[in-house]
Amino acid sequence: MRILICGGAGYIGSNMTAMLSTEGHEPVVFDNLVTGHRSTVGAASFVEGDLADYELLVETLKKYKVEAVMHFAALIEVGESVQAPLKYYHNNLCNTQNLLSAMQASGVDKLVFSSTAAVYGIPRQVPITEDSPKEPINPYGETKLAAERMCRYQSQTGKLVFASLRYFNACGAGNNCNLGEDHRPESHLIPLAIQAAMGKNSEIPIYGTDYPTPDGTCIRDYIHIEDLCRAHLLALNKLEQTPEQGCELVYNLGNGKGYSVREVIETVKKVSGKDFKVVAEQRRSGDAPVLTSDATKALNELGWKAEVPDLEKIVETSWRWHSEHPDGYPD
What we know:
The chain is α/β, with parallel strands linked by helices. Helices cover 38% and strands 19% of the residues. Strands 3-2-1-4-5-6-10 form a seven-stranded parallel sheet, sandwiched between helices. Strands 7, 9, 11 and 13 form a four-stranded mixed sheet that branches. A two-stranded parallel ribbon has the order 8-12. The two termini are 29 Å apart.
């Protein structure tokens, strides 16, 4: 299939582009390069553009005879979303509406949407299922949930079939460890710990050491980037087999097993062979003690499960990428 990858120069989008090419699809990357990296796109067709540009979207969809869209082009920083909510509503919600309008105008009716576990907020119980209450506590989660609902209502018109994939914590490096995380600034735990191991950070903070968990630190569910991308391929296949509009394909994507902040840090130390300073800080507002997924629905309906569930193996791929790219991508 010819697939438009919105945000295809970013961390997840670039790994998805590489996997699609390997599987014989024809990805077309659409990215404004604000946070993405041109060098990650490889040989795939590339269009530099913003989702706010309706005319360019329609032109691209028609020019490349796109058959399906994967949408990764979101802002993802929770803290920033609290400080700049309008920025997040514009990019994550208004631009998604623009994309859906362009798809409708171009006769493209298949969408795999990149969502997030942030739609659940602080869960009442774990592991979290797709039916758990959706109570986001920040603009990032709110805008993702609103975008999901917009897709659902559009599907009820008969002009869209979509799958929404709610990620937990994507991590690791894919495509033979050639595509890793290079966020600027970085906010994710594994790459931050690796930067500390490489001497790029003098220390790494732990926000809260008195949670009701075995070691007092928060527990999160980590999913390797290639497991995440495989789920998108399976979801796309499911859409092809589900011609009726109005159906709702929503799946949690995670290991189902959580690792604490201390466990992650100790694993990075073990894999890297480096020690670094760890500093205990006060809790951050809104951090739940435990966030883990129940991905049974994805297993039952897509045949998906995590093939790289082991934290040490995940960290090994990330360490290899950072070791080979100490300064990140050249662009």
